[in-house]
Amino acid sequence: MSSPSLKDLPKVAFDLKNQLEGFNPDNMKKADTNEKIILPTAEDVKRERQHNDLIHGVNNFSADKLKRTDTLEKVILPNAQDVAAEKSQKAFTEALIEGVGGFDTNKLKHTETQEKNPLPDKAVIEAEKGQQQLIAGIENFDPAKLKPTVTEEKNPLPTKEGIVRDGHNRHSLSECFKHNYNIIIQQTGRTWRQLKRERI
């Protein structure tokens, strides 16, 4: 295989060619290469050793070291109560099967099946229709049909004549109480303090 001629080689751009020719390796920064070899910890070594010992013990295990043991198969026989219970259960099952197999269907009473499907009466239909109309009216309500209203807060204050009249009524009521107390004092002979203590 012959080497390619100069004209067949790929052409490098002029700018890149000038940069490559004028490159100075002294302008590069020096960097130290650190080769790091991470050694296993003591726990890793211990874990690996235990794993290797386990595999070695399994591979080199000798079956001659096993002790011979005799397997005892225990068959528990049923006692008298278990036998009697099983017999009574068997007799009941046989009687039940015989009763079902020999059942006479002529002993059954004749019955007529009535299928009831009560339809709602007119009142129930009208009530349901009214409820549906109410729900439809609420769901389809247009708030644009509402008329604007102005809320007026009224808190009428008493007039001057009302205040004077109220004070006069209180004064008259106080005079009435005093008059009644005086009558009670005259009739019972008690003092004002005694009546006040007894809250009469």
TrEMBL record:
TM stretches of this protein: none
**What cellular component terms from Gene Ontology apply here?**
cytoskeleton; cytosol
Keyword annotations for this protein, in alphabetical order, are:
Cytoplasm, Cytoskeleton
Biological processes annotated in GO = actin filament organization
**Primary localization:** cytoplasm
Under the heading SMART domains, the entry gives: THY
Write down the Gene3D superfamilies for this protein, in alphabetical order: Single helix bin (1.20.5.520)
For this chain, the family text in UniProt reads: Belongs to the thymosin beta family.
Protein name, please?
Answer: Thymosin beta
Q: Which source organism does the UniProt entry give?
A: Aphis glycines
Source taxonomy? Eukaryota, Metazoa, Ecdysozoa, Arthropoda, Hexapoda
